[in-house]
């Protein structure tokens, strides 16, 4: 049986764990405020909040319920649009959407209001703007300016937020209803009752953002092995200078980690290029690696870090492999059926090293890459002492550029060296023409993004004009 809190109601259900949360909400609970748009995580009409009890406080994140398995709600607080309604008046987000004429047909509005309420509830000041919070919500008729204006006004109100008594403050200001303050106690009781309720049989699902886009119907009917709440697959730790990140870590959790933000000062800029707020709150590293897409952003990011994967089988046996050896051919990888990726680890970037990530897609946000690439590079006296470079979208797997690396080691940071390296890079890739661009376009992008690493990291040493002219 799965137990969780839906708005202000305790749910105990024997419905299959693999049914989508969206279908459970709409069909089993008859809460029709959460809308069905694309069913692919793209439009945000189905956005709900998931509250998880962490150290006695509930941390809320927005997700797209159309690609989330019901079983992942276990032990959590799920908030739909009905759950943010106040008894008598509109809540702050609803009122500001109305005041700014930010709704026309209204189909997208519940999703926007839930995302905006998630922004108000957010723990860490990672989401700088309300616009960031609604990055996964699409409106086809109002136009975004009025929605943006409502967002600005929400931000203004939140400037006075009392972070020490956040929930009480948000209730008093009319952002959320009164029952929110009872949730921590209710979740504490549920958490105890929920342990070991889920099956370990069936298709392995982390947070479902890849699997549910393709197999939602199948997963709704079959047994699913939900791994998202396995504690040993979670967490980010540093031991000496080695950083280890659990396979269940989401993109948002990377960003929330203060130490990682120090290691990668541009982490937010990099990760904002990945999907949308809702999908970043769900998409895990393990899911991204095993999905094995040649353009998986996390694969490209961690390949260039020269990372190591830790893999465990169901007998508890552990093995480690270089991440560069994991992807073997198109959608083929070094993982047995009884194995799970536990974690990925890498040596933290030190002061003589630089890291960069570049991605070009048809639109800047909420799109997968045409080409993406990362570089890690260590310099001493202007000489490249070591480097690791990855590139996506130009081969059958996320590609580690071994020959380009070997050419660069021992050479100075110099326009002619970079140009020569770019020629070697071309010999290592085999792009094909598809919906994300022609083979010729991807070759051009590969060169330009490779140059972009050096322009971004060593603008003082590189003559841009010289680099981009033949
Ligand atoms: C709208 C949308 C936008 C997206 N945008 C991007 C984008 O910009 N960039 C990008 O890279 N991806 C993007 N994705 C893809 C997806 O979000 C990521 O690949 C995500 O990291 C997958 O994680 P998950 O936990 O949701 O995977 P799931 O769907 O749960 O799992 C994917 C696969 O991994 C396996 N798996 C998961 N964890 C483990 C583990 N620990 N050990 C072994 N096997 C495991 C599962 O069995 C499954 O085969 C997008 C998806 C959507 C729906
Ligand atoms: S219905 Fe479009 S994101 Fe869920
Ligand atoms: S108001 Fe119609 S889709 Fe947004």
Description:
The model has no long low-confidence stretch (mean pLDDT 94). The protein is of the alpha+beta class and 470 residues long. The chain is built from 18 helices and 18 strands. It has helices at 21-28, 92-99, 109-121, 130-133, 144-158, 166-173, 183-194, 211-221, 251-256, 258-263, 267-271, 277-280, 285-291, 297-303, 402-408, 415-428, 439-457, 464-468, and strands at 2-6, 9-13, 47-54, 57-64, 77-79, 203-205, 224-226, 236-239, 242-246, 308-313, 318-322, 327-329, 332-333, 339-347, 353-361, 369-380, 383-392, 399-400. The longest helix is centred in the last third of the chain and has 19 residues, at 439-457. It has two domains: 2-195, Beta-grasp domain (Ubiquitin-like (UB roll), Roll); 231-468, Uridine Diphospho-n-acetylenolpyruvylglucosamine Reductase, domain 3 (2-Layer Sandwich), CATH 3.30.465.10.
